[in-house]
Structure formats: C-alpha cells, structure tokens
Design brief:
Blueprint: E1 2-6, H1 11-22, E2 26-31, E3 45-49, E4 66-69, H2 81-92, E5 96-101, H3 113-122, H4 127-139, E6 143-147, E7 149-151, E8 160-163, E9 175-177, H5 178-191, E10 198-202
Parallel strand pairs: 1-2, 1-4, 2-3, 4-5, 5-6, 6-10, 7-9
Antiparallel strand pairs: 8-10
Helix pairs in contact: 1-5, 2-4
Amino acid sequence: MRIAILGASGRTGGTLLGQALERGHEVVALVRTPVKVTVPAPRQVEVRTADVTVPRGFPDLSDVDVAVSAIGIGTGDGPGALVAGARALAAADVRTVWLGALGSGVSSRSGGLIYAGVMRMFVGSELAEKVEADEVALAAGATVFHAPDVTDGPLSPTRRTIPLAELRRPLLPPRISRVTLAALLLDEAEAGTYGTEIVVPLS
C-alpha cells in the first residue's frame, strides 16, 4: 500500500514510518519541516512539506491509499493546529486513521476515574481541541483511535483494537507502548476493519 503519515517526524510518526517500511509499504511522509524526518537507509520515503496551518499549501494525496495521522499538540503550536490537521485530511478526501486520546470527549470517563483526573490535570485546556478535531475527522469518515497514555516499551503480543462501546472501565490508568500503538494503527490502515467510529487500542 501507499500510506501517508501526517506528523512523520514525531516520535509516534517516526515509529509508524519505520514499521510501515518494515511491512513493505510505500510511505509518503507529511511534515512541516522535512529535514526532521529520519529515513531508515536504504529504504525510500517520499517527503512532502505539509503545514496544516496553511490549507492552500497542503499537498495532494490522491495518489495514496490511506492516511494515518500521528500529530498532537506540540510545544510551540498555537491553538487550532490539531483541528487544522483534521480539516486538512478531510479536505484531501482520503481514507483516514486518526489518532485521538482516550479521556477526551465521548471517552472522558472510559479510562477510569483516576485517568480522567490525570487528563484534566495534564491535558486540561487541550481537551476541547482534541474533541473538535475528532468531530472533524469522524464527519469526514475517519476511524478515530482513542489511545491511552503512550509509553516506551516492547511490542505487545496480545495487542488488539476494540470499539469504544466494548471497553471495560479499568481501575488503574491504562497505558500502551508506542510501538504497539503504531502497529495497531497500521493494522487498521491495512485492513480497514472499522468504519467511521471511535476505537481503543489495547495492549
């Protein structure tokens, strides 16, 4: 497949890029600063400049099979960057796997009471933007992943994705390793198992 990765220069995006190449896919890296993309030699990646805050300059994606978003609200990003990213992919009219956050919007209580408190404390003002970005992505037909806290760690052999409605509220704050999250995002990009809904990646 030909997979576009929005935010390919970030930690999760870079992990996605590496795994996509390992699976034999062609990758189009969509990044604001191309020099920040690390491409595992000697494999080839097409890098396209994609600043979501400049919609007119967003690259054409008619030649890709699916887009996977790995963008978040980074340091120095002004308000609206996440929503702008969702709108850019919606306008590109490409099947999309969108990365959101467990504990936002309709999943605000799904991670458990402790997790909800942690989200309010550390994410706080960004929650509203995450909710709006999810709504834009869903309206455009995306599959939205509400990922729990992302950590470093190995690939989970028991990884799975479930619809949000099937998630049992945990007692302790849930976590998932970055490599496991990337693998599940790519699984969905390849198989298209879920439609326009919110799903949860689990270890």
